[in-house]
């Protein structure tokens, strides 16, 4: 198979996988909306009662529509029942670890009220990665629609949309130790890479757990995910 033929096939498989995941949500009575504006994201999500994390909140970020997407799953009564969002992370020569040190230390306060601080040394994948990344977060499902597999389908869908939209070398997020090691949610969400102690803090923040794992997929992992979904 030529490079051109392989690229066309990968595009078709990816598009089919996205359509399949969208259909699974529709079968549960959920209509998917996709937006690209931070202000509209806050407008759509705040009425659900879900708090918006610092990495997507306008208070801490200026994200143009080209670098953001969010998904809301709406039921038959027009009520938002699930959310997920992604943003492009342009490292421009930095490592992912350097980006975290510059960014996360500004948006999270430490327990004493000062700014938090990340240690100089972070996990290996973050220290070595310098490509194009996409961050995935804000995954939430209303309590009356949990345990239906909605979060799993929505998370996989968001990963594939990020891959289709930006073609990143890495899509990543964070999950707690309980969700990765105990419940197996990371596997059900389609994450291939799982690295514990994702963030090493010299001055820990008060707002997020200290036991976070990095969960991630490379471009090849995402192609494999789209193959699995589309079978």
What is shown here, in short?
The chain has 231 residues and is α+β, with helices and mostly antiparallel strands. It is built from eight helices and nine strands.
Explain this structure.
With about 230 residues, the chain is an alpha+beta fold. The model has no long low-confidence stretch (mean pLDDT about 95). Strands 1-2-3-5-6-9-7 form a seven-stranded mixed β-sheet, sandwiched between helices. The protein has a two-stranded antiparallel sheet with strand order 4-8. It has helices at about 5-25, 40-45, 95-105, 125-130, 150-165, 175-180, 185-190, 220-230; strands at about 30-35, 70-75, 80-90, 115-120, 135-140, 170-175, 195, 200-205, 215-220. The protein starts with a helix and ends with a helix.
Strand order in the largest sheet = 1-2-3-5-6-9-7
Main beta sheet strand tally, sense and closure: 7 strands, mixed
Global Rg? 18 Å
**How much strand content do the residues show?**
15-25%
- Averaged pLDDT, please? 94
The ordered string of helix (H) and strand (E) elements is HEHEEHEHEHEHHEEEH
- What's the total count of β strands? 9
Category by helix and strand content: alpha+beta
How far is it from the N-terminal to the C-terminal residue, by CA? 20 Å
Share of helical residues? 25-40%
- Coarse morphology: globular
What is the number of helical segments per DSSP (H or I, 4+ residues)?
8
List unreliable stretches of 5+ residues: none
